[in-house]
Amino acid sequence: MIESFIPTYTFHHYSEVTPEFLLSKGICAIVSDIDNTLVTYDDEQPTPELLKWIDSMTKAGIQISFISNNTKERVRIFNIDLKFFARGSAKKPFKKYVLCALDGMNVDHDQACLMGDQLFTDIWAGNNACVRTILVDPIKDRKNPFTKFKRRIERAVLRRYEKKNGKK
Ligand SMILES: [Mg+2]
């Protein structure tokens, strides 16, 4: 059961995920979360830094799509210029829209990865959809008590797993 929440790869920030790394793992498509994975909740649109990263991916032939549990309107505005496959109200950890994104990009499970900042929504959704997963640190945590509590549980789950299995 604990395996459901364990990411295949971990990075501190999306910018550390390079085209070279993904291609070396046979990955040519990313299904990415938006909030706190690529931008903060306050950024309505991709930042210049993010656009550069996206550009490096697309130039290397790596497709990107967005799956967010935030509203459809948030996702629409974020994706307005990029026009990637994107879906709001995605109800992660359910796998339905992750699979839709794979369809949308026309790739198989073993060619794709899901990237996100939360174990219990993003990583679980990716594992449910049988794609590899990348966990990144949240860009900017909301400071409310529930989020802090959730982060504590997430870190405890990861630590327990790493102790048992060694760091990946
Ligand atoms: Mg997120």
Give the names of the bound compounds.
magnesium ion
CATH architecture: 3-Layer(aba) Sandwich
Number of helices: 6
How do the SSEs run, as a string of H and E? EHEHEHEHEHEH
Q: Gyration radius, to the nearest Å? A: 15 Å
Shape: globular
Structural class comes to alpha/beta
CATH superfamily, please? HAD superfamily/HAD-like
The protein's oligomeric status is single chain
- How far apart, in Å, are the first and last alpha carbons? 18 Å
Provide an overview of this structure.
The mean pLDDT is 93. The protein starts with 8 loop residues before the first strand and ends with a helix. The protein has one domain: HAD superfamily/HAD-like (Rossmann fold), CATH 3.40.50.1000. The protein has 6 helices and 6 strands. The chain has a 6-stranded parallel sheet with strand order 1-6-5-2-3-4, sandwiched between helices. By secondary structure, the chain is of the alpha/beta class. The site of magnesium ion (MG) has 7 residues, from loops.
